[in-house]
Amino acid sequence: MPTSAPTAHRPAAGEPSGRTGPIAAQPPRDPAWAPVAAPTELPAAAALEARKDEAKRWFEALRDQICAAFEAIEDAYAGPSVAAGAGRFVRGPWDRATLAGKPAGTEGGGVTATLRGRVFEKVGVNVSTVFGEFSPEFRKEIPGAAEDPRFWASGISLVAHPRNPHVPPVHMNTRHIVTRRAWFGGGADLNPIRPDVQDTAEFHAALRSACDAHDPAFYERYAQWCDHYFWLKHREEPRGVGGIFYDYLDRGDWRRDFAFTQDVGRAFLKAYLPIVERHMNRPWTEAERAHQLQRRGRYVEYNLLYDRGTRFGLMTGGNVEAILMSLPPEVTWP
Asked: Are 248 and 185 in contact (CB under 8 A)?
């Protein structure tokens, strides 16, 4: 069964979603995606620490909301019989300094949350807050690190691999990073085994709504950035049907940028849960399962070859198991 991406389908004029299918070619890189030339000056130490703490607490609160919502879906499942019972998240703390043989608590850490159930074959929802110094070879890649290698980073990352081939896998991440400058980044993207026009349109519509509430230009800019970023160059195809992706968000108003990042997290739940509920009880065939396992290979290829989050985690001494939680539990190649 073929595993190549379907032909692109663009919406008719007036459709609110901005997308109903995958794209056929990688969009060109937009110079506007680069870090701002004149970053906002960091506040005094006490105010900066208060901002960091607020962002950290938000990512943890969002994690709790997501975990509760996914467990409720596990409880509501009424589809084909599977061996697994209703899944529950298992959490595990980790310490960055301990991983490097240093005294515990000196470089932050995080908490992994993994669910293996009957709707979701595997879901990882990880939060982390880490700090320290970038390695010399990595400093030139991070804004502000060339002048001062110290950094602080906090965020949430989610990847869901459903059991049912009709339920699309999904990825969501939002983060706050501080070096000599500070910015937010993140996004969400849908990666169906077989694209569904309604799913794609509704997913994009929810993200567009979140964007439009803050800046009418955000959705088109960040949807195109997502298409550019999640592109498998070696196969010349998109990873999925897109979503939004943004980075280096620093508009001179930390509160406004933080509010947008919070709304992206809220929009993810609004966008994804109805899609899961619409498809999770549908039966599937062995052929559909085999196709699902092959399409998962595309996810593995992208994350190991191109993903900046994977690279950032590995280059900053993160928890390898947490970093690679995005990989599916079972995958095949032709």
From this structure: yes
Closest CA to 156 of 192, 114, 112: 112
| pLDDT digit string, tens, across residues 131-156 | 999 888 888 888 888 889 999 999 99
- Ranges of beta strands (E only) in the chain are 90-95, 108-115, 120-133, 150-162, 170-178, 182-190, 231-232, 237-238, 242-249
Q: What pTM does this model have? A: 0.91
The domains found in the chain, sorted by start residue, are: 39-326 (3.40.1500.10)
Instruction: Tell how many helices (H) and how many strands (E) occur in the chain.
Output: 9, 9
Measured distance CA(288)–CA(276) in Å, rounded: 17
Beta bridge mates, 153 = 130, 177
Amino acid letter, residue 182: A
Among residues 171, 176, 279, 291, which one is catalytic? 171
- What pLDDT is stored for residue 308 in this prediction? 81
Q: Is 171 a catalytic residue?
A: yes
| Mean per-residue pLDDT, 252-261 | 98
285-310 residue pLDDT tens: 999 999 999 999 999 999 999 988 78
DSSP state of 98: H
| Residues contacting 150, CB < 8 A, separation 6+ | 131, 132, 133, 179
